[in-house]
Amino acid sequence: ETAAPKLANVTILATGGTIAGTGASSTTTVGYTAATVGVQNLIKAVPELAKVANVTGEQVFQIASENMSNEHWLTLAKRVNVLLAQNNVDGVVITHGTDTLEETAYFLDLVVKSRKPVVLVGAMRPSTALSADGPINLYNAVLLAASPEAVGKGVLVAMNDQIQAGRDVTKVNTSTLDSFRTPEFGFLGYIQGSKPFFYRQSLRKHTTETEFDIGALQSLPQVDIVYGYANMNPVALDAFMAAGAKGIIHAGVGDGSLASKVVPSLKAARAKGAVIVRASRVGQGILARNGEANDDELDFVAADTLNPQKARILLMLALTKTSNTKEIQRMFYTY
Ligand SMILES: NC(=O)C[C@H](N)C(=O)O
User: Where do the catalytic residues lie (predicted)?
Assistant: First the structure.
């Protein structure tokens, strides 16, 4: 008789969100309370987890993800790095609210120093709802984190039976189960029959390949996002600068075009030393350097394919290393 294969050790770090949410009734799918169920009860609700991994749980935070902050990210990333450095941890799953899940995934993709799997997971329906998606999503996330296939793939997101890349995935719908998508580039694979199936991979550098080290950091530089629209008003940008912003993401219209009325404020911000990154509110496509604005002349940076909220994360980390815009532009073409 051959011994049963040894199960991987997976730690679930719980941070709250709808996956840990409860509603007034089984038909409550909006207006429920996020972040009420503790990690041990999340694990207990899915006894099948024991078949795919030796699971342990830690409650890191208990928040709705709209309240996720830079400080939460530093705490979480440091914990992930400590756990993955241990021989008795093979992978980490992070339960998370869906609203900012894509941001945490990209932050970790840039600062986790391990090739071991890190998988973020959430739910669109609270745990008390009919056909809640949390339990199957959690099961899929744990088996993915326990799988050799997920090693070295960067931080992953497991939602709706699909495997998504932390860099590229985004929430595209306020409420449906298929809210997590990677438009145009596509998701990386499926989870089916308790197995991950990978078909593609991002070529951008991640985890052990990055130059970022948050080990000694207690905070991150202030970077804010200004949103572009017709009749755009520069007041928000000026206010962010007055509040001490070290970087500004300009989530411009189209290919990041700059409204004439806003250009003086952008130039003034740059003159004060803030790094300006041109991104787009459109959600897809390359933000072309020297396209809709002369970035060389303005000394601005182009966001490439990062959406504004992900560009904010890369700029914060970049500013922990340098304020040289050429160097920062290189980073935007690398990660
Ligand atoms: N579906 C969710 O998880 C939404 C919730 N507001 C959160 O991000 O925590």
Answer: 18, 98
| Domain edges within the chain | 8-209, 223-332
AA letter at 143 = L
Into which CATH architecture does domain 8-209 fall? 3-Layer(aba) Sandwich (3.40)
User: What pLDDT, on the 0 to 100 scale, is given for residue 1?
Assistant: 56
Question: Which residue type is seen at 224?
Answer: D
Catalytic status, residue 98:
yes
* Cβ of residue 95 lying under 6 Å from some atom of ligand 1: no
Q: DSSP letter at 50?
A: H
CATH no. of 223-332: 3.40.50.40
- Write down the pLDDT at residue 92: 99
166 within 8 A of 108, measured Cβ to Cβ: yes
DSSP 237-288: HHHHHHTT-SEEEEEEBTTTB--TTTHHHHHHHHHTTPEEEEEESS-SS-B-
Cα 169 to Cα 97, 107, 141, 172, 182: the distances in Å are 14, 13, 15, 9, 5
8-209 and 223-332 share one fold? yes
User: Length of the chain, please?
Assistant: 335
pLDDT of residue 62: 98
Which pLDDT value is given to residue 2? 65
Q: What ipTM was estimated for this complex? A: 0.96
Ranges in the chain, pLDDT < 70: 1-4
CA of 23 to the centre of ligand 1 (A): 13
User: Rounded to an integer, what distance in angstroms lies between the CA atom of residue 179 and that of residue 157?
Assistant: 12
CB of 124 closer than 6 angstroms to any ligand 1 atom: yes
Which residue in the block uniquely carries the two structure tokens 């290393």?
Answer: 321
Those residues whose C-beta lies under 8 Å from the C-beta of residue 160, and which sit 6 or more positions away, are: 133, 137, 177, 178, 179, 180
Active site residue 29: no
Ligand 1 atom showing the smallest separation from residue 179 Cα? 1
Compute the distance from residue 63 Cα to the ligand 1 centre, in Å.
9
